[in-house]
Amino acid sequence: MDNLSKEQRSYCMSRIRAKDTMPELIVRRIVHRLGYRFRLHRRDLPGCPDIVLPRHRKAIFVHGCFWHMHSCRYGQVAPTTNRNYWGRKRKGNVQRDQEELRALRHLGWKVLIVWECWTKDVPTLERRVQQFLTNI
């Protein structure tokens, strides 16, 4: 059973954003600090990547662990109410992610997926991002 009333849950869900999330801002700061310039949310690319480096043909997605079913403890949490709906919704997200990733790679783009839980350890994340951006 949900601990919140229908109105409270609705309010909480309405606060969830698709752009300019804290994990995304952390990754943007890292990329900028490394000296790269980038574009945001290019709608002409499959999946509308969060960060796009057109000159390098590289794209970065910042995924929320819960919404994209990461293998970490945050992604393994299963909603207790309306299980069928949320199960289909989250599995659909994962399937769509795979299709978009395949389409981007087919177009010759290199892609990095940064998980929300990775943003809790910024030095390690910075090394991962730098390795991705410097590898050809």
What's the end-to-end separation, in Å?
50 Å
- Across the major sheet, the strand order is 1-2-3-4
Which structural class fits the helix and strand makeup? alpha+beta
SSE succession: HHEEEHEH
Biggest sheet descriptor: 4 strands, mixed
Overall strand count: 4
Compute the CA-based radius of gyration: 16 Å
CATH class: Alpha Beta
Oligomer: single chain
- CATH architectural arrangement: 3-Layer(aba) Sandwich
- What is CATH's topology name? Endonuclease, Chain A
CATH superfamily: VSR Endonuclease
Approximate shape: globular
The poorly predicted ranges are none
Average pLDDT: 91
Helix content: 40-55%
Total helical elements: 4
As for the number of domains, it is 1
Strand content: 5-15%
How would you describe this structure to a colleague?
- There is one protein chain.
- The protein has helices at 6-14, 22-33, 83-106, 122-134; strands spanning 39-40, 51-53, 58-63, 110-115.
- The chain is α+β, with helices and mostly antiparallel strands and 136 residues long.
- It has a single domain (17-134), classed as Endonuclease, Chain A (3-Layer(aba) Sandwich), CATH 3.40.960.
- The chain has a four-stranded mixed sheet with strand order 1-2-3-4, sandwiched between helices.
- Helix 2 crosses helix 4 (122-134).
- It starts with 5 loop residues before the first helix and ends with a helix.
